Amino acid sequence: MLAVFFDLDDTLYEQQQPFAAAIQTVLPDFPEQKMAELFLRFRYRSDEHYEKTISGVWSLTKMRRVRVQEALTDVAESAVNDQLADEIQAAYDKALLQITLPIEIKRSLTFLKKQGVQLGVITNGPTKRQTEKLTALELAHWIPESHWLISNALGVQKPEREIFAAAEKLSGKTPPQLLYIGDSFPMDIIGATQAGWHAIWFNHRKRTLPKDAPAFDYEVQSFAELEKLLTTLFTS
Description:
Number of strands: 6
Largest sheet: 6 strands, parallel
Low-confidence stretches: none
Structural class: alpha/beta
Mean pLDDT: 94
Radius of gyration: 18 Å
Distance between the termini: 12 Å
């Protein structure tokens, strides 16, 4: 493996933290013990509805409203109107500007770069929003902006083969030489394995492996485990 591409959201940073901060700001009475479950439903609804924004069936604003409204209904049977959903999104956007890389990710990126491994990011989402997150994380210290592949800018998204093909062309590598790391099994692991890439499932939310899941290389459940695995794989 000569190049490693990472997912962004909930892989390069801990996404539940800014999400929880937004919920606590707008809905201070929401029970803390249900926050992890709410976040998982929020991510599920995001993945479920994202295609509708790409195809133009829904506006981005509608998708963002519906995903949090449905997640709250799923977990707490608590309905929020459009105004409150928009307030949660605004608070979430603000919190996302404060995100930072976990120390294990910083060490992993530094190690891989020293080993001469090409690095990149493949992420679904709006170009401006995802670029702001990558900038907040100061990813350019390790990964040049030319290697930030964002679905809306390319017109293709994970798990489609075309976005992985774009990374192959950019890196000059073939699928067996490429490794992808992501937390979403349907978007990241299925997409990567169908493209012929190696794949690490960053399952730190301890999701259940889907039935009839394709074979993939590794599963890790923490930033520390991910760092240890990458160090082992790429030590000369």
